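Human: Note token order:
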Amino acid sequence: MPQSNPHGLNPVFKLRPLKLLDLDVEHEADTYDAYDQFLRNHPLMSDDALPSWSKCNKRAARVRNEGNRFFQPLDIIPALGKYNESICHAKADSEDLGFGYANRSAVYHEMGEYEHALVNIRLAKKHNYPERLMSKLTARENNCKQRLAAGQSKGIGDPCPRMNINVQTNPKIPFLAKGIHMEVLPKFGRSMMANRNFKTGDVILDEKCILAVVDAEHRYHQCSHCTTGNAKMCSLMPCPHCVSAMYCSEKCLERDWKYVHRFECAVSDKLQYISFSYVAMGSKLFLYGLSLFNDDLDEMMRYFETLEKSGGNALDLDYTEYDPLEEWKDLCNIKPVPSSNDNFARTAAAAHCFTLLKNPVVAAIVNTPAKRTFMYQRVRDFVRLANLYKWENFQSPLCPVASLFNHSCDPNAIATIHSGQVRIIVLRPIRSGQQICVSYGPSWWDDAIGHHHCKPFNCKCVVCDPETKDNWRGRVKKPPASFNRDVAIVGVGFLDDRANNAVKYNAVTQFIVQYAYLHPQRHFGVMLRTYQDILRSLTVDGELRIHRTKAHAELDMGNE
């Protein structure tokens, strides 16, 4: 689901040597050493070209001042990003670290996120915010407490229950609805099929990611492990060692360090400089697997000697007795899809291996030509595989089961992605025997209301396939007289400031259930788009409530 850059974030994306990944480099032997000499001699990969940053209070102060320039006109999101960047660069227990938290508390105070503001005020005091300025911080603290006491919180407690999985679940996969299986279809490959009927509003998947990629452009806005982020979500904490990773919780920080980041940390700024979008998932998947093999690369290599890549199926796993190694092995078993630009995967993999091997922790394990070639070949295959798992250009949570749902420009379900959680919700009724599809980008109703999109892939869905599209368009029925009246009623409800998202959700759900037989009529498509938007709003509202509740709990614990 490619996204633009609506908030004016730092154009880091434009500064990286992306041309390196487009070079037409061919080697007779597909080995790491064949690329090694090329990369050593390439100016974009030299030590002078690749950034190498460490904690630095001087830089923290400079970045914080840049944030101040955004904050003065209340350009909130860029200001928050700069304050987060400042926190990342500040040395432990320095005044600059305290300043970063204090400035971040001012952003949350301005947004009315008083729970998060109080958490950051507490962090500022804990990390040497200067006594000479404490009166200003204390005044903000008292103001937050007064507003919360007056009932001005934006909401804590349980999120909207209808966004949780609300149907009978698979006995072996508790986050997937019962009555869904995988088939391999000639046009679509691995596909998710319904064994039973599902109705509008059914939440049929609620899966937490096992890994995620956050592009460098968003590294100070989202959790490096689970992608939780944006200005309203939570107070990110920095990696204590590098300046390129932030986390939404201690749990995410510890898990990322255990499985991946300990290999990346010393060269994380270099890795982000050469990465973009999903390609970084290739090396992450390799490092994650290495950790699951307890850093025993020889054992990992022996496993691949017997692997036949017969095709993976995450639905065969028993998630009630979760085994991350078996889940990872299932991913390895998937046959990568042939690409018209296979050179991209090879060059990207070689560049990532080259950079990771600059870290002594990695070099000590991958210490022979054979092991370096093995690492390169696995990362290469994982880069190819990661293309199947990407959801957006700037954040790609890896959810093995969610990835089985194919794209259609006429989706019958919607995928919402927040905090590393992929939920799939039924948009319009699904009958037993139908494929369940979501949209990875454009849908037919976007064109119906004048939003034209270019698909970056060869789509074979019912809307685009020359063999099916005429029949699909010919199914349009004339709406009854009540249709336009009910469209107007729902529209008035959306303009009513007193109606919350739950009320709007109920109104649109009832409309779609009543008029589903009109699909794909143009105005019915507009209502599907409206329903899609309200589902995403409910998901975001629920996540905001969860993170405010967590912040509130932190405050209560600190008062004990």
Summary: Residues 1-13 have pLDDT under 50 and may be disordered. The longest strand covers residues 180-185. The longest helix spans residues 522-559. DSSP finds 20 helices and eleven strands in the chain.
